[in-house]
Fold:
Amino acid sequence: RYEARIGYLFAHIEGPETYDNALDFWKDLRREAVTGDFSRLMVVDEVTGTLSTTQIFTLSTEIARLHTGAAIAFVDPKKETLEANRFGETVLANRGVNGRVFTNEKEAEDWLLSFRSP
Structure:
């Protein structure tokens, strides 16, 4: 689900984690962001399952391509996938995308609202 909030677009995702599901979500998020003219995005991840390291790398590369210029706060409250998502954060950073992984929405929102484009 998507929700326009003051200063950013909020997205909550849940369901089974597959590469195709994840890629479809990030494409949909891009359309929503463009439609609403949002450059700041918060994604709360409550999907079940995991992706391989190769899939995370490939997906993160696609996210960077889709969301160039955006600031993305990614909230992952699950301990078992946090490190994998931090790897994705590194891939994004290496491709020039401002993305950070958080464990709670408050910290993510504080960072996102303080983010200023270069």
Notes: Residues 21 and 67 are 17 Å apart (CA to CA). The two ends are 29 Å apart (CA to CA). DSSP finds four helices and five strands in the chain.
